[in-house]
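Tokens for Galacturonokinase. Go.
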Amino acid sequence: MVGYSWPSEAELNELKKEVAEMAKRTTEEVRVVVSPYRICPLGAHIDHQGGAVSAMTINKGVVLAFVPSGNLEMVLRSAQFGGEVKFRVDESHHPKKAAKANESINSIGSTKLEEECCWGRYAKGAVYALNSKGNVLSQGIIGLISGSSGLDSSGLSSSAAVGVAYLLALENANNISVSPTENIEYDRLIENEYLGLNNGILDQSAILLSRQGCLTFMDCKTKEYKLINLKENDIDGVQKSYKILLACSGLKHALTSGVGYNRRVAECQEAARILLDAAGKHEVEAVLSNVEREVYEAHKDKLEPLLARRAEHYFSENMRVRKGIEAWASGRMDDFGKLITASGRSSIQNYECGCKPLIDLYEVLLRAPGVYGARFSGAGFRGCCIALVNADLASEAASFVKREYNKLQPELVSKIDQEAAVLICESADGARVIAAP
């Protein structure tokens, strides 16, 4: 915990106290999982196509305090949302697509609780994922989950952080030993099968694999990954320390309820199918990572303009990731930042995500003092933007962004918790159990 501002000792003590009261246990019996949010400097929107991505976790995220229930019951509360979720780990939990047809199957009224306390669906998804892979859950948990105070976590993969937190807690309570790569698959089941979101594995991979001070590189086709340390000095021998800026736009939009994300995934797949068919590879899975660059260059004229833009984003972003890890490993933060900014441009022009408020915030960040590079965070349909900034100028940059964005979007700014409007963050370790008897 040394060097971390999150979670604070006071926050941990408060969560432990409340769980102890819920479960009628002592605070010493309470266990804690921390599951950080992630940022993706490079590799936007290509993980679902098997592309190369980069990520790191930050010192903000989800904390889940819990005790094993001693029976099959799950009892959960949230620090951010009302109500209490109760269900059993031996219930049948059906994926989103099947839930409506089978909603009467729950004998203890979990469907009604799902409607009243929809945040509980991630816990149910974790139970679904573990059970579907043959794990035997002999007991549930009594727990309280809390996200970082005041922060709009849209675009920071808070959903994956929540799913991972529940997985780690259930595994810990049931003495199930699971590798990080297995948990990546389990969380994919939560997101893809249970919740019906067609995303890739970047989010959960970053949350489970990242380490403080490193850039996590992952090939989403082969599942191979490596942690890359930032070279301490640049080529001139001058220290290039950095901080991470999180700038909230004030936009809120539920990713799983919209069609924008899933539609773009389908468009990438359609582009891949056209390119593969043109190359005579009719039996190959239609994802862009299965299209060689030479095939793309030879047949891209067969793509209609919209699909051509999606494919161009994939191939250019994949190249930016490769160049980016070289720049990071060499300590060339300026070059790394330029690639981040180019990623943001391609997300706007080729992938066509974002809207005026997010684009305004992105442009403001690029003008802020000391910023190396900036882009949208997450899917780019809501939430926040990220920037890497010279550590010595981080406070000045944060003040600049607050002031200038307010000039452009005063109505949205009025809805933001001003203490969390622009946060200065640091790299952090990935998800883990930090307190257990």
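Confidence is low (pLDDT under 50) at residues 98-117, 254-258.
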